[in-house]
Amino acid sequence: MSGFSSSSVAGRDIVALEGVTKRFPGIVANDSVDLSIRPGEVHVLLGENGAGKSTLIGMLSGLQQPDEGRILVDGKPTPITSPRHALTLGIGTVFQHMMLVPTLTVAENLLLGGPWWQRPRTEELAARVAEITGTLGITVKLQAKVSELSLGEQQQVEILRAMLRNSRLLILDESTSMLTPKGIDELGALMRRLVEQGLAIVFITHKLKEAAAFGDRISVLKLGRKVGEIPPERFRALGEQEIVSEIVELMFGKQKDDPEAVERR
């Protein structure tokens, strides 16, 4: 499938942040953050509200620019100047609040943003959707109105749209916040199939158990700084409770059975 792994080499960063800092009046939202995003990994970005996750995602998706540091794409310093530019680099973002038009069909939503001078290529769209959904093991009803879909189905459409644009890095911003437990499990299974195809995923959450269940690598942000990381080799060596305990220690400096820390899960 076009865009999944052809231009990425396993183990090499698709995107890397080096010393990235972003300031707003009266606050340093990100403070000299280093981050490596690699194909074939779910990289969980974890932190409480205000930790700097959204600002970091804003810079990766081209909505904001760093004040200091640099972003590298395929090893080359590359300012991401706009959301459209991010898409051309293969960076797709599914934001917490759905960006679909509820009164339009799934197909109409997927065709939005195409060249205005061309007739919509509905047959080509159907063929590509069948190819992608078949690989990922999901079903998408092209003629259904978005308003008729569950939140989980709408999210699958958002992810499908990113795949149609040849995304090789998919950013999922608090994607489980509105989902049912079944929807969360389905998203976790879908993420696993995507990374098995060679995609890189950045999964933003503040839920510790989701991080332990779905991640391959975890980076923890606290007050704008990256305070620690659990790399894949260590991640695989730990059980879920051990992972949660290590995350809690990084985030709060407290053990997992501390009442105050448990409340934040």
List the helices and strands in order. EEEHEEHEHHHEHEHEEHHH
Which CATH architecture of the domain at 15-96 and 167-263? 3-Layer(aba) Sandwich
Straight-line distance between termini: 37 Å
Number of H- or I-type helical stretches:
10
The CATH homology group name of the domain at 15-96 and 167-263? P-loop containing nucleotide triphosphate hydrolases
Q: Any low-confidence stretches, pLDDT <50, length ≥5?
A: 1-9, 255-265
Strand elements, count = 10
Q: What name does CATH use for the topology of the domain at 15-96 and 167-263?
A: Rossmann fold
What's the shape?
globular
Overall structural class, as computed from helix and strand content, comes to: alpha/beta
The average pLDDT score comes to 86
Biggest sheet: strands side by side, in what order? 6-7-8-3-9-10
Report on this structure.
With 265 residues, the protein is of the alpha/beta class. It has a domain at 15-96 and 167-263: P-loop containing nucleotide triphosphate hydrolases (Rossmann fold). Helices cover 36% and strands 23% of the residues. It has ten helices and ten strands. It has helices spanning 53-60, 83-88, 106-111, 122-136, 151-164, 181-196, 208-214, 232-237, 240-252, 259-263; strands at 15-24, 27-37, 42-46, 68-73, 76-77, 91-94, 169-173, 200-205, 217-222, 225-230. The chain has a six-stranded mixed sheet with strand order 6-7-8-3-9-10, with helices on both faces. A hairpin with a 2-residue loop joins strand 9 and strand 10 (225-230). The radius of gyration is 18 Å and the shape is globular. The protein starts with 14 loop residues before the first strand and ends with a helix. The relative contact order is 0.18. Residues 1-9 and 255-265 have low confidence and may be disordered.
